[in-house]
Amino acid sequence: MVERLACDIEAQIERTSRYLRIFPKKGEDYIGMVTAEATGEYWTITDFVLSPEVRRIGLGSDLLQLMEQNIKDEGGKSLKIDLTDFSVDGIKLSSGLTELKKFLLRRGFTNSEEKPLLLSKGLNLEV
């Protein structure tokens, strides 16, 4: 499935019963990815990556909204992201985590009291 997003960007969506992957594409080039994994009705974002040249144009918000809508369509009740788990080839990512955390907090995610880098959001199932 392909969805049209901001600035002539398309998003290729791959969905199974347990995984949801969204790959934004500009022309022929992939410019990021957002993936989530389900445990029953509860979903966890496992990847949220955008190329620097397409940040701050609303694409991240569009992708998050698209992810949330697809998870709701699957009957998902909540979405969380654990920023302590973000790494590339085993190397923890610290660059950009502060920005990602601020971005998610502005979009309705809340901090866990016991784990400051665990953010979650309940998904209203009413459409």
Automatic annotation (TrEMBL):
Domain N-acetyltransferase: 1-126
GO molecular function, one term: acyltransferase activity, transferring groups other than amino-acyl groups
Top-level taxonomic group: Bacteria
Pfam families: Acetyltransf_1
InterPro entries: Acyl_CoA_acyltransferase, GNAT_dom
Name of the molecule in the record: N-acetyltransferase domain-containing protein
Organism the protein comes from: Candidatus Woesebacteria bacterium GW2011_GWA1_39_21
